[in-house]
């Protein structure tokens, strides 16, 4: 049990930012180990739209993964979707295989409150019963509101509520991370 309200991490500056491609290499190494724990044809990557789906797509290509990826758009499954709105969410979920008895690796760019991960797992369990689900994220930024922890993480880099990471990808699928100042509730 913690006493009092948790202290907010200090404001971060642009020159402290981790390099997205270095984090991606660490994420990739961790995902290789997760995949090796199961028969390759029973493992699927599940990218959380949008940053997680980009990462999952690049992992599939770089690791020559033969099984299909799934894409989960968590907007309708999030408990706070009325607050965050639907405007940033475009593609519908797509799960082109039977998830039952499969080993799923959920991939996301930024792990924050844990609500997107919970929403993604709810959606997956609505359509079947996976054998296992692991979680691989590029950055864990702290600020958890649910008991969710990653199995693989590129880096733990805490941010205050007034800042967000924004992942982008260029035409060559190379990742970059920017910082955005936000108002928090
Ligand atoms: O910092 C954050 C937190 C959640 N999602 C993001 O894309 N960035």
TrEMBL record:
Keyword annotations from UniProtKB, A to Z: Glycosyltransferase, Transferase
Ranges of residues in domain Phosphoribosyltransferase: 22-153
Record has Metal-binding as a keyword: no
CDD domains membership: PRTases_typeI (cd06223)
Keyword Protein biosynthesis: no
Superkingdom per UniProt: Bacteria
InterPro entries recorded: PRTase-like, PRTase_dom, PyrR_bifunctional
A molecular function GO annotation: glycosyltransferase activity
Pfam family, one: Pribosyltran
Protein name: Uracil phosphoribosyltransferase
Organism per entry: Oligella urethralis DNF00040
